[in-house]
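Write out structure tokens for Scavenger receptor class B, member 2a.
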Amino acid sequence: MTRRSCAIYATGIVCAHLLIVGIALVVAQVFQTMINSRLKKEITLTEKSQMFESWKNPPVPVYMEYYFFNVTNPEEFLAGGKASVKQIGPYTYREYRPRENVTFLENGTKVYALNPKSFVFVPEKSAGDPEVDIIRTVNIPFVAVMNELNSYSFYVRPMVSMYISSLGIDIFMTRTVHEILWGFKDPLLSKIRRLKPEVDEYFGLMWKKNGTHEGEFVFHTGEQNYLDYGKIDTWNGLRKMSWWSSNQSNMINGTDGAVFHPLIDRNELLYIFAADLCRSIHLAYVEDVEVKGIQAYRFAPPNDVLMNPKENPTNAGFCVPAGDCLGTGVLKVSVCREGAPIVVSFPHFYQADPAYINAVDGLNPNKEEHETYLDLQPTTGVPIRACKRAQLNIILKRVPGFPKTKLINETVFPIMFVNETATIDDDSASQMRTLLLILTLVSNFPLLIVGLGIILLLVLVVLFCRNRQKKTAKDDTAYTQVSDKLDDSSEKPANQPMKNGSYIAMSPVEAQKC
């Protein structure tokens, strides 16, 4: 056997083995199963996990952008007209949210943590100085007092109204952005404090929220089931809430939005418990996106999250008392926040009933600026980019005994909205791209084997064809036809015997005589 033949046989054997092994690995998905199994074990909230440190001290910068609605026609509104507002902002703050008092429970299957948040003003990302800029907005303490007095005798309310008017307090107030956000000493609350010492005389939308936490959380680490990774087990010792009117509405579902389980599917719903909204919400897949070279799935709250119970009966539990429901796109949260009739929605009443949008001039809801969404890397479940947008509103309506409200048309009045944003930093994005490249190469290794087998198959075909061509050419030149005619220029003797007509690679030889 020649060297060429050996090379052909060897190439054929290697090619066959590569194709058989590669196809078998592709069909069995051995490497993909191995990677998935590894991810399920590694992506946990245990101390040995690589994800634990980024969960405990998030490297991704979080920014809070506050926008306010400045009321431009308060007198017209109090006279029964439509309110007109102008958006002011943003006033941006960098949010820091480290996990503290981290304690593992039940053999590492659960972890306890506090999540205090602190805020630092970022002037270069802001539209003005919050300590200088002044806005006119609803006097929430005054509205809270009116709402509280609804349960008092009708004869009490006019006297209280007269006393409040004598203090120069009105339904609308003018304050700096800093005061409205971080607190000021309210004259009405100061008077009430004399009668009820438990009442705080300071008011602010973010009063006592700088450097404090939203409660005590216990999370599942994912050690037992990767699908439970990051899910909330208890909040302030509770596994369910009590202020809504149905068991389903009172459930504490999902994570706190910081982490999600790996291997996310487009068809699943993701749940987040929002302590500031006093409820859990779900997000559905929207589209594939790319963030800093990383492929991600975008999830967003679907229209049914804040839909009217008539269209989505599962939301009936958020009507308190039962049957007392608002329209689509708004949620009354005063049941879990004592005081004023506070209502939350998406900014500019995005996805809400047009009646709320048309009740106030100056609103312009749109998806690009007002949608809440979350971009997740599906393999690891890591949030790549997030935008949480929520608007704070208050119900203004006529209150018997308060003459200043007698002409008011009931309105869900916008106060402000916040845009909480976070995007993966460049270093983390680079590490993520490297990790995903490695995972891609490993998971596609069987395809590389099949590809190499196909290349060798092509080489085998070429070698075989060339070998056949050379063999055919050799057969054609191995037998040489020799003419049996004498050369015309020479004559043979008559008595010379004839010579054989054709010979193979030999000169003719005369016949031997016996």
